[in-house]
């Protein structure tokens, strides 16, 4: 087997209409960087009749490759010629390359793609900053800011962040179980690991008997993944690491199954689900499997006086009238709203929920990428207790719909805590509700180019008691929050405190405007998060 960058004893021939060169055998194909510019090139080197070395250079930055047969490839690149001392692009050149075996043919194709997408600067071999690609913009680049992509790939290119995810044993253990319990889905199959990171899921797939795994990773973590996979040779011989974005790379064959961990906070943060769906459209065979298969965003109103007071107190700094002789109060209102524009990420006690949750389903196997640009979820709940509603609590779960076992990964409150925790959107103006009162509203998520979402939340308490059948709205509160800028609060749930004890901690300035009868004591202990019948596998 040839090395990834050098392929001996290949034959090639020009196939351009105006070319007269005959087929040449015994050549060596070498991938590398141009000595002066560092640009990626494919060099075809052979000896002539006088034993002198000849070289044919192909610039990979604008080249394309097409499969003609099991061992035959067509390389097409632009050529230029000088006219009046000025170099102009004038025609394309096509070179047919024939490898010795199918294994070398596959390796040649992967080397072509890796070198084509390798990011190099003016100095040979010197990498540019993460997130930049030579050539025309891909779909990822057109919708994501370069600065956001740079930070994103830098973050996931560090081992300490990969360790944080690997040490989430709920996450890692559930993936391992989902793969191993469904070996029949992996044995003898081609697998693509979308956003492979450290390569752990690729290694799981190889353990389950995959014929070959393509681990696609765009960050510098691809280098670490290659080292990890090479350090496990019994598995690594069936894994190929490809550095690049799934929107750009090419693979030599279709996949029978995709595996990925594309979930962010509130399921959709970081917008990697879009890349997962794009990978499905580009690489998955019809009827192929996806691990995970579907995702659900769960929502329920909550009451948490401690949290509300904590957020409001952050803005008290701006109520100072004499801060070194300066009155800060003109900025208090803006600061107050600014703190309430931060979703709170923490683990909370499920008894803080005011009603049973509802959920919104995303089917990764059928949905279109564009459906993730804007997600509109209607809200409808019935309060189980009378209390003050401080906002909307959210979490998610995903299903691995294997042929043998269906396994769920959940981030629900009351379940073992994951590195995703849960998320809460707080209303700056809480709602007052009575037991049995209907709570309606809308959760509207709008994607933006910083790889996240703006959250628009509306919650209303409908008329309760006599005249309720007329459906009138009694109170409405709205919030605009930025999912990319959350407040990371706690790693574990706070002790549950009864409602009257929470009220004793309030500042007088934050005392609710309303009668004592509007504030009922406590939250219903009956509001718990029970796993669905089909998600019970998680708790085993």
From TrEMBL:
List residues of the Probable histone-arginine methyltransferase CARM1-like N-terminal PH domain: 6-117
Compositionally biased region (Low complexity): 498-518
Q: Which InterPro entries match?
A: Arg_MeTrfase, CARM1-like_PH, PRMT_dom, SAM-dependent_MTases_sf
Q: Which GO terms describe its cellular component?
A: cytoplasm; nucleus
PROSITE patterns per UniProt: SAM_MT_PRMT
Residue segments, region Disordered: 498-540
Molecular function as annotated in GO: histone H3R2 methyltransferase activity; protein heterodimerization activity; protein homodimerization activity; protein-arginine omega-N asymmetric methyltransferase activity; protein-arginine omega-N monomethyltransferase activity
Keyword vocabulary terms for this entry: Chromatin regulator, Cytoplasm, Methyltransferase, Nucleus, S-adenosyl-L-methionine, Transcription, Transcription regulation, Transferase
Mind telling me what this protein is named? Probable histone-arginine methyltransferase CARM1
